[in-house]
Amino acid sequence: MAKVEGEISRLTGVRSARLNLSTGKLAVSLRRGGDPVLVLDTLERIGYPATLFDPEAAEEAQDREGRTITMALAVAAFGAGNAMMFSVPIWAGLFGQELGPATRTLMQWASAVIGAPCAVFAGMVFFKSAWRSLRAGQANMDVPISIGVLLTLAVSFLETVLHGRDTYFDAAVTLLFLLLIGRWLDHSLRRKARGAAADLLALQASTAILVDQQGHERRVPLRDVSPGDLLLVRPGERIPVDARVVSGTSDLDNAILTGETAAVPVRTGELCRAGAMNLNGLLTLVALARSEDSTLAEIARLVEAGSQSKSAYVRLADKAAAIYVPVVHSAAALTFVAGWGLGLSPREALLRAATVLIITCPCALGLAAPAVQVAAASRLFRRGVLVKSGIALERLAEVDRVFLDKTGVLTEGRPRLLAANPADVERAAPLARASAHPLAKALALAAGPGPVAGEVKETPGQGLEAVVEGRTYRMGRADFVGAGGRTSGETELWFGEVGGEALCFRFADSLRSDAAITVAGLRQRGCEVEILSGDLEGPTATAAHSAGVSVWKSGLTPQDKASAVEAATTSGARVLMVGDGLNDVAALSKAHAAMAPGTALDASQTAADLIFSGDKLGSVLEALDVARAARKRALENFAFAALYNLIAGPAAMLGLINPFVAALAMSGSSLVVTLNALRLLKGGQK
Predict the structure, then answer these.
(1) How many CB atoms neighbour CB 85 within 10 A?
(2) Minimal CA–CA distance to 590: which of 606, 576, 605?
(3) What distance in Å separates the CA atoms of residue 332 and residue 55, rounded to the nearest whole number?
(4) Active-site positions?
(5) What's the pLDDT tens digit per position in 10-54?
(6) What are the residues facing 96 on neighbouring strands?
(7) What is the pLDDT of residues 222-234, one digit of tens each?
(8) CA-CA distances (angstroms) from residue 248 to 213, 268, 270, 366, 446?
(9) DSSP 3-state of 397
C-alpha cells in the first residue's frame, strides 16, 4: 500500500494518491497537466497493473482472494498435521528414544514428500507477492517470509539427502499455516469494512420506473437513469435516485439516511433522497442525479473512506516497515557471515540466517494499526456512526473539551410551532418551505402544502430573503428581519416584508432523552462541556440547566462559534465540536475533531469527521470510547511488536531458536496483534 501510494505520489503532476485496501481501488488526484497514462505505466512497472474500477469485478477479485487464502490455509493445515506425524518420532530421539539412521531417513523423506508440496502450494500467496515486489526492484514484507521458507526447505532437503539429523519441513508448513490464519483474519476484517458500504448500497433500488414523453412507463436498470428523467415511485418502493417531486404527496421513511424514525411528508417541489422509502402516496419525480452521485452512494463512499484513510499510527508503521525489511536482510546476512567466520558449518550458519528471517518478519508491526482502525470503524458503523477518516478517530481520542450546539444536537431538532394566527402562518409559509432550518420546517409543516418562494438568498446564521408575488420578504433572526430589541426570550422565528411589520413565531423543542446522561458521561471521561448556541438566552439557559451544563453562550453568530473554538484551541484544549446547522460549519472545521448528526445539513456533514444517526446523543460517548480504546489497542500492539523483535531477533542470531520455534513465535505475534484489535468488535452489534 505504501509502495503504490509512494510511487504514484512522486510522479510529476500528481496531487495525491490513496489506495483503499478494502476494495483495491486507487484514487489519484492530478494537477493541471497531470498525465494519467504515466500513472498507469508506473503501476505496470512496479508490478500492480491497473484497470478501470468495476465494482462487480472488484467484488469477484476479493472473493477470489478469499477463496485462495482459504484453500492455501486448508492445504497448509493438512501438510502441517501430516508432516508432524513423521517428525514427532524424530523429535522423540531428543529425549533418548533414538531412531536408527535408516528409519530416521525414511521418516525425513516421508515428511518431505508431504510437507514440501504443501509448503510450496500454501506459500504461493507469499511467493507471488514477493516476486512482484522484487521485479519492481523493491522488497516488501513477503520477501523475508519467502526467503526464509525456501531456505528452510532447501536446508532440510540437503540434510535428508546427506542423512543429516535435523529437518524442518514441518516448521516451514506450520509457519505458513499460522501466517495464513493472520491473512485470513485480515481479509475477513476488510470484507466487513467493505460489507458496510455494500450493505448501504444494497438498500438502493436496483431498478426505476421511467416515464417517457408519451406517458408510457417502463422499468429500467438504475444505471440507465439520467438527470432530467421523469420517474414514477409507487408506495412501498424506494426512491431510486436523488429527485424532486413533480406531482403527488406522500410520507417518506428516511431512517437509513438520517436516522430520523418519524415519517417525513413530501409534496410538489420538495427534494427526495435516494434510498428513502415511499410509504403511502404515488409520486412523480424528476431525477436530479445519477445513482452513483446520490446521497446514499456518497454515504457509502464515506464509509469506504473511513476504512482507507491513514492515521499517524498507520503512517508510522508504514515507515517502520519500509526500513525494517533491509535491516532484517542485513541482520540475516550478518548472521550467516559471522557464524561461518566464527567456525559454524555453512549449513548451521545458513539455518541461523533463515531463522532470523523468519522470526523477525514485521508482520505484527504492519498489522498493529490497520487492524485496529478497521475494527474500530466497523464497530462504530454497526452502532450508527460513520467514520470519515482514521485520523479522526485518533484526534477524537485526544479531546478534552466538548462544545455542543443546542438546536438539533442537545435537543431533538424537531421544534413544534406554538399557538399562532393561521393567517400569519399562511403568509410566512412560502419562505418557510424554501428553508432547511428546523424552525422554518416546523412552520412549513404547520402550514401544509403550498407554493414555494423564489429567488431565495440565505445568509448563514441570520436567515433568508426571498420573493413572493413580486415582494421581498425576510425570515430569520429579529435583527435580520428588522425587529431588533423585540425578542421574547423564547425560541422564535421572525418574518416580515422588507421595510414592513415583522411577525414573531414561537416554538418548543424537546431535549434529547439521553442529553443529561451524555453530558455527565463526557465529564466522567475528563471532558469539559459547554454549549455554543445561536438561539436566544432563555431557551439556551433552559436547555443547559436541563442537560446539566453550567457553561453556555447564546445568540452566537457562525463567526462567534468559530472564534470560541479557536480561542479554546489556542489555550491548549483539544476541542470536539458537535453541530448540525449552517452556522456550525466554520466551528466544525476549526475543531480538533467534529461530529454531526445524520439530520444535519450537507455542509455540516461534510465538515464533520464523524456522522451519527438516530435520536440518541449517546453516540458521541460511544465514538469517544471506541476512539480511546482504539488508541490503547494500537499502542499495545506497537509495544508488543517492538518487545517481541527486541527479544526474538538477538536470540535467533545467537542460535538459541531453531526454525520451528521461530515459525511458531513469529506467527503467534501476528495473531496476537490481530486478536487484540478484534477485541474492539466486542459489543459492536446492535
Answers:
(1) 14
(2) 576
(3) 42
(4) 405
(5) 787 787 776 665 556 677 777 777 777 788 888 777 767 676 666
(6) none
(7) 778 888 888 888 8
(8) 18, 6, 11, 56, 19
(9) coil
